[in-house]
From TrEMBL:
Record's keyword terms, sorted: Membrane, Transmembrane, Transmembrane helix, Transport
Domain Cation efflux protein transmembrane per the UniProt entry, residue ranges: 11-218
Cell compartment(s), UniProt: Membrane
GO molecular function, one term: monoatomic cation transmembrane transporter activity
GO biological process, one term: zinc ion transport
Keyword Transmembrane listed: yes
Name this polypeptide is given: Transporter
Length: 323
């Protein structure tokens, strides 16, 4: 996995979650708090998720084969999608079930100092992991807002770790609130309510992750800046006069496919056109290094056909019809 894949953030999150999962489970054994049990399962699920991200990053590095000529870059998207499934089922649904059971049959929390102490420790550890993920994300985020970064990032690992860490911190606060209210009122129902809130939170995060990863699996185009750089690199103003139409597709976070039809002058020789196409490919790779697979087709631009919308190479207008 490349540095942009956020390996450091994943390892930091994995280390924190393993330690926290053990501590939470010990606290559950001593206190009987359902919030602690839900949080321990949550941390265990997060640890498994970070393991999945590392496995996906490793498998994505395999060389292309005749059966998979564009390589295995999308494996990172597949494993990120598996993370959302684990978070939904193991984390969210279990917490909702456990919260329901605790509300139906509440019991007092014993040895209150165990869950409170572990939750404080977990908040500190998760905050460290979250800080690492933020530091790793900032160079890639640039001027984008955090919501824009999560929606537009082509590498899935950092958005996944960011959302998991944010969910973990909010979940810990909810667990601490549930345990605190249960201790203050002597009513174990509050512990169950806190557990239910944790379950709902995890399911919401899992749905967001699934939606974003689904978009990557379907195939996203290059970003606006990359598209502009590619278009500018294609046209030399001499042999290549304009871009008739272009399509881009991410084969993986650091692998981009570019396919375009370029307008050339009608009186250029085949040798001149071939040289211009080769030069355009070189300029594209220099401008956008992740453009690995480039297919350029020379053609003659028909302005009348383009205006009528009958030019098959014309980029279609955005669909304004309701979906």
């Amino acid at each position: 996995m490349s540095a942009s894949g956020g390996t450091k953030a994943i390892v930091a999150a994995l280390s924190a979650n393993l330690a926290i999962a053990v501590a939470k489970f010990v606290a559950f054994l001593f206190s009987g708090s359902s919030s602690m049990l839900a949080e321990s399962v949550h941390s265990l699920a997060d640890s498994g998720n970070q393991g999945l991200l590392l496995v996906g990053g490793k498998r994505a590095q395999r060389q292309a084969t005749p059966q998979h000529p564009f390589g295995y870059g999308r494996e990172r998207y597949i494993y990120a999608f598996l993370v959302s499934i684990v978070l939904f089922s193991v984390g969210g649904m279990f917490a909702i079930y456990e919260g329901y059971e605790k509300i139906k049959d509440p019991h007092e929390i014993e040895h209150w100092y165990w869950p409170v102490g572990v939750l404080v420790f977990a908040i500190i550890a998760e905050a460290f992991s979250f800080r690492t993920a933020i530091k790793e994300s900032n160079p890639l985020r640039g001027k984008q807002s955090w919501s824009q970064f999560i929606r537009r990032a082509k590498a899935p690992e950092l958005p996944v770790v960011l959302l998991e860490d944010l969910g973990a911190l909010v979940g810990l606060v909810l667990a601490l609130g549930g345990v605190g209210l249960a201790l203050a009122t002597g009513n174990g129902v509050w512990d169950g309510v806190g557990t239910l809130c944790i379950g709902v939170l995890l399911i919401v995060i899992a749905i967001v992750l699934a939606a974003e990863t689904k978009s990557l699996l379907l195939g996203e185009s290059a970003g606006v800046d990359e598209v502009r750089k590619i278009e500018a690199a294609m046209v030399d103003g001499d042999t290549v006069t304009r871009v008739i139409h272009m399509r881009t597709l991410h084969l993986g976070p650091e692998e981009l496919l570019v396919a375009a039809k370029l307008a050339v002058r009608h009186d250029d020789t085949a040798a001149e056109v071939a040289a211009a196409i080769n030069a355009a490919e070189a300029r594209i790779r220099e401008a956008v290094p992740i453009a690995r697979a480039i297919y350029l087709e020379p053609d003659l631009y028909d302005e009348a056909a383009a205006k009528r919308g009958t030019n098959p190479g014309m980029t279609p207008a955005p669909d304004s019809s309701p979906h």
